[in-house]
Specification:
flat; mainly alpha; single chain; 118 residues; Methane Monooxygenase Hydroxylase, Chain G, domain 1
């Protein structure tokens, strides 16, 4: 029974050896000339301003989650549009229910003021 897992174990072992070998090899032969410029955080060529531990408003995370939530609808709309003709009226009604639920959620979020960036 364990013989069936042998190829997987060998693959994991090869991947681990390769990964650790690459890290070890690069640390041994890589250049080590740190300077203040190299150790400074890179921010699009601009001088860093403030701390990297800056706190973000909760609004930022809410907007990000809402973007992901409403953007996921495209993932469901694409396969539906590919087989639209085969689904017939049932597919149209199901997608209509889906869009209505998303629209109700969008209106709710809008009325709660979660989309305002003030």
């Amino acid at each position: 029974m364990l013989g069936a897992y042998l190829p997987i174990i060998v693959l994991v072992a090869i991947a681990a050896v390769f990964g650790l070998g690459a890290l070890t090899f690069s640390s041994l032969i890589g250049p080590k000339k740190p300077s203040a410029v190299k150790l400074a955080p890179y921010e699009c060529g601009c001088e860093p301003v403030g701390s990297a531990r800056e706190r973000f408003s909760v609004k930022f995370y809410i907007i990000a989650m809402l973007f992901i939530l409403f953007d996921i609808e495209a993932v469901f709309l694409y396969p539906w549009s590919v087989i639209f003709k085969r689904l017939g009226m049932f597919g149209v009604m199901e997608m209509g229910v889906f869009i209505v639920i998303l629209f109700v959620g969008y209106i709710y979020v809008w009325k709660k003021g979660a989309l305002e960036w003030e």
